[in-house]
Design a protein that fits this description.
Blueprint (H helix, E strand, L loop, with lengths): L3 E4 L5 E5 L4 E2 L7 H10 L4 H8 L1 E7 L5 H13 L4 E8 L2 H7 L11 H9 L1 E4 L2 E7 L3 E7 L2 H8 L7 E6 L13 H10 E9 L4 H9 L3 E4 L10 E4 L6 H5 L14 H24 L1
Parallel strand pairs: 4-5, 4-9, 5-8, 9-10
Antiparallel strand pairs: 1-2, 2-3, 6-7, 7-8, 10-12, 11-12
The structure holds S-adenosylmethionine (SAM).
Length: about 280
Amino acid sequence: MTVKIVKTEDGSLTFFSEKFKEPYHSVTAGAFREAVEKFCVPAKVSEKVRERGRFNLFDFCFGLGYNTVAFLDTVFKENPQAKVRIVGIERDVKVIESSLKIPWHRFEKWKWFLKEILKNRRVEGDFPTLNCFTPQISAKIFIGEARKFLKHFYRQYLGFADAIFHDPFSPKVNPELWTYEVFLLEREICKEDGIFVTYSTSSAVRKALIMAGFGVKNGIVLGRKTPSTIASPAFETEKEIKKKKSIPYRDPTLSDPPELIKSRKRGCEYLLKKQTLFECIF
Ligand SMILES: C[S@@+](CC[C@H](N)C(=O)[O-])C[C@H]1O[C@@H](n2cnc3c(N)ncnc32)[C@H](O)[C@@H]1O
């Protein structure tokens, strides 16, 4: 695999996807800084692992593994006796393999984890999996299409996650992973006090999260002007978020092509505009 490597604001490296025309991490926030500050901190990893000694993570789009690695680092710094379970999904195993070939700077010590999962390959259902089982870490990364994974496996992980790191490419280019239907299944995977974290600030995404049963709040502002998003069944949606009108991405069978998902949303927006105009005139 030939990958374009990009240096980000905190000095850490990431890849650029030629297919999606986006980097794998925020260049302006810094790749590892984003993993820690946009994902681990808002998910309250340190606090929960200090109090409970256990934490289950669902890493939706494992990519280079940075979010999981930042998670492991946060957990064991806070509580060296902690026990964690990690379930992840990623379509492209080559990204995981390529990640090992670039320097990880202060997280270099966690490369053993990626080597371990790449060594320990199994198959579950139709999905190849990468695994790590130690007395404190149990990890399984499914390799395949994320929607197919959700459809086949969500029942196995009902109420599993203390945190969901939702990290596909942006809704504009990867809309199939930002739909109401995807969030409904992630809601099933989330604990009642679990926290869903994503970098996106899109109102369409926030609307779909509310419809799926999450309360939604602003996350932190890092590397750009708008805040990220945190959501939980236990949150009350912030007033100003509730007020925003938006049409969510929809994918009733969890199998539509991205272009159809986008044009369905555009069609609804057009009809709504026409109806609003009609109401204004008559
Ligand atoms: C922004 S990157 C994730 C970065 C990652 N969280 C990390 O910490 O390194 C998005 C990832 O989503 C994966 N992806 C995109 N569409 C997918 C799909 N339909 N199913 C599974 N994975 C997908 C891409 O292969 C890519 O690795």
